[in-house]
Automatic annotation (TrEMBL):
Signal peptide: none annotated. GO terms for molecular function: oxidoreductase activity, acting on the CH-CH group of donors. This is FAD-binding dehydrogenase. Its cofactor is FAD. InterPro entries: FAD-dep_OxRdtase_2_FAD-bd, FAD/NAD-bd_sf, KsdD_DH, Succ_DH/fumarate_Rdtase_cat_sf. Residues 5-533 form the FAD-dependent oxidoreductase 2 FAD-binding domain. Keywords: Flavoprotein, Oxidoreductase. Pfam families: FAD_binding_2 (PF00890).
Length: 550
């Protein structure tokens, strides 16, 4: 006899959505997670809570003209689908854009979710209308950040748990998918020692027992590989991005380990696009780390000057907030795995934000008073000021000469020449004298301020970097930050995992990052941001609803 109608492997956002949808139909569900109960919600908890909506009320209030056609143009220009196995990812992309332009916002709003009224303009792209990037702002920050995204699904799951339809089993690590007559019929694995580790901290792996469970369907919703640097390097696309970085910082906890990919493959599932991944170039070491090698991403406005490790200014489209993977490739081609921002106090005050719920306590608290106090104060938001004061990657000096000396000291070698760096900054500063410019970044700054949201809270007025009135000067050393897996388990639009024949493996589903957020990689080569949490929600919903119908 089956122990449940469905087993969910992973208690992150995708797993919670799938479980809620299945239980809504009166089915019995078991959720398994190798971490403790305080980690329920997974990586989504730590997120900024950004969601990609198309033609939303928030956009329209800011006079942003968006459409399903424009969003699909941006998505396909960014994805660059070019492989035979991209057939299902392309269908997922079409379906997700329809969802984001259709019922997604109203469905989430009906569950109580709300959004900050200023829409963010993330990943602005490589310079062509038909190429990579968002043509308009689409990044909607959820009121409450990542915990605010999780809230309605946690509520639904706990209500079903109270009613006996959902059972939550923590510290249960799946190591094998059980098959009966060619169909996946359950899971087996180990019970891990109880853990007192706080959310995100590294927990123990001592085994205290074993378990085996049967069900009519198994949903793999175990996340990506970003917490395992060796696995990241193994799958690194050397042909496209060059050799992987020698040093990285981790944008996800250690339990984002990719174990279930190999386990599901052994049970007959296929993995596609394993070389497609999404790592950031603006990582800084967390001065108060939660997980091993913990890094935080700076969400920059467009004004910081970006230099490689030897002091050469990065070319367009390698500008702050424009083209993540082009910038990653350029940095690695220099033979170094870090780079530098050089900016002023005026820039950090208005433009710097840090990714994550814990770095945005004002948004996370849902307090308008705290948001206004934090964002409209005399300095940068308090978490940014804390990094400026305590973070080892931040340098603050009154003169460029002292700044360069400190940069070279932090790097451990004298790679940056003061006179050459000064000449590049002075050349840029001369472009500020006119309301037009040949400098692509200066033009981008002025263009950004044509959008009311950026002018109000995200883009500083153009000013000269070396003018002491705008100081002090700030340099920030930037590391490569691991984050998302864009490829994964190959699935159809019902989130059924496909086998080598292209047909579904009976009883086997996958949702969230482990499935490349849908299809085995619905982003293609590039992400438009706000599409990671959205992909977890959409693929988890598809899996849950198909299982409920079946």
């Amino acid at each position: 006899m089956a122990d449940a109608d469905a087993i969910i492997v992973g208690g992150g956002l995708a797993g919670l959505v799938a479980a809620a949808e299945i239980a809504d139909a009166g089915r019995r569900v078991v959720i398994l997670d190798q971490e403790g109960e305080n980690s329920l919600g997974g990586q989504a908890f730590w997120s900024l809570g950004g969601l990609f909506f198309v033609d939303s009320p928030e956009q329209r209030r800011l006079r942003i003209r968006d459409s399903r056609e424009l969003a699909l143009q941006d998505w396909l220009g960014s994805a660059g689908f070019d492989r035979p196995e991209d057939a299902w990812p392309r269908r997922w992309a079409d379906a997700y854009v329809d969802f984001a332009a259709g019922e997604m916002r109203s469905w989430l709003h009906g569950m109580g979710m709300r959004w900050f009224p200023v829409v963010g303009w993330a990943e602005r792209g490589g310079g062509f209308a038909h190429g990579h990037g968002n043509s308009v702002p689409r990044f909607h920050i959820t009121w409450g950040t990542g915990p605010g995204v999780l809230e309605p699904f946690l509520r639904r799951v706990r209500e079903h748990a109270d009613a006996g339809r959902i059972e939550l089993r923590f510290r249960h690590r799946v190591s094998r998918l059980i098959k009966t007559d060619g169909a996946v019929s359950g899971v087996a694995g180990e019970v891990l020692e109880p853990s007192t580790a706080e959310r995100g901290q590294k927990s123990g792996r001592t085994v205290t027992g074993e378990f085996e469970l049967g069900a009519g369907a198994v949903v793999v919703a175990s996340g990506g590989i970003g917490g395992d640097f060796d696995l990241v390097r193994k799958n690194w696309p050397v042909d496209r991005l060059g050799l992987p970085p020698v040093t990285m910082v981790a944008g996800v906890p250690h339990h984002v380990d990719g174990r279930m990919l190999a386990i599901t493959k052994e049970a007959g599932g296929t993995i596609i696009n394993a070389d497609r991944m999404w790592h950031y170039t603006e990582g800084v070491k967390n001065w108060a780390p939660i997980w091993p090698q913990h890094g935080i991403r700076i969400l920059p406005g467009p004004s910081s000057l970006w230099f490689d490790a030897t002091g050469n200014r990065l070319p367009a489209p390698c500008l702050p907030g424009f083209d993540t993977l082009a910038t990653l490739k350029h940095i690695l081609a220099t033979g170094h795995d870090y780079s530098w921002f050089v900016l002023t106090q005026k820039v950090i005050k208005k433009e710097f934000a840090l990714s994550g719920s814990e770095q945005n306590p004002d948004f996370t608290s849902k307090s308008w008073r705290e948001v206004l106090k934090s964002r409209r104060g005399a300095g940068a938001p308090p978490p940014v000021e804390a990094f400026k004061e305590k973070g080892e990657d931040f340098i603050v000096r009154d003169t460029l000469a002292d700044l360069v000396d400190a940069m070279n000291a932090l790097a451990g070698e004298k790679l940056i020449d003061h006179d050459r760096l000064k000449a590049q900054i002075e050349a840029r500063d001369r472009e500020i004298d006119n309301p037009f410019s040949k400098d692509a970044q200066v033009t981008a700054i002025r263009g950004a301020r044509n959008y009311l949201g950026d002018k109000l809270i995200r883009t500083a007025a153009p000013h000269k970097i070396l003018d002491p009135a705008n100081g002090p000067l700030i340099a920030v050393r930037l590391h490569i930050l691991t984050r998302k897996t864009l490829g994964g388990l190959h699935t159809n639009l019902d989130s059924q995992v496909l086998g080598h024949s292209g047909d579904p493996v009976p009883g086997l589903y996958a949702a969230g990052e482990v499935a490349g957020f849908g299809g085995g990689g619905y982003h293609g080569y590039n992400a438009l941001e706000g599409t990671f949490l959205g992909g977890c929600i959409f693929s988890g919903r598809n899996a849950g609803r198909h299982i409920a119908r079946a």
